[in-house]
């Protein structure tokens, strides 16, 4: 996923269907310098982690 789209999704009030390794996730914020996103799995909101933007897929 490109950085601009990830930022749009993070700022959107609507939930978008984004996955990481096939797992539905929520993008909290995007780090422009590192090209990463802070995310959590929808089924485990307490477990936040950083992923490369290239690992995120929108359906």
Describe it.
There is one protein chain. The protein has 59 residues and is an alpha+beta fold. It has one domain (3-58). 15% of the residues lie in helices and 51% in strands. It contains 1 helix and 5 strands. The chain has one helix spanning 3-11; strands spanning 18-20, 23-31, 36-41, 44-52, 56-58. It has a 5-stranded antiparallel sheet. The chain starts with a helix and ends with a strand. The model has no long low-confidence stretch (mean pLDDT 97).
- Rg over C-alpha atoms, rounded to the nearest angstrom: 10 Å
Distance between the termini: 11 Å
State the shape. Answer: globular
Helical segment tally? 1
* Main β-sheet, spatial strand arrangement: 4-3-2-1-5
Content of β-strand? over 45%
Rounded average pLDDT: 97
List key phrases describing it.
5 strands; SASP_SspH; Small, acid-soluble spore protein H; 59 residues; sporulation; alpha+beta
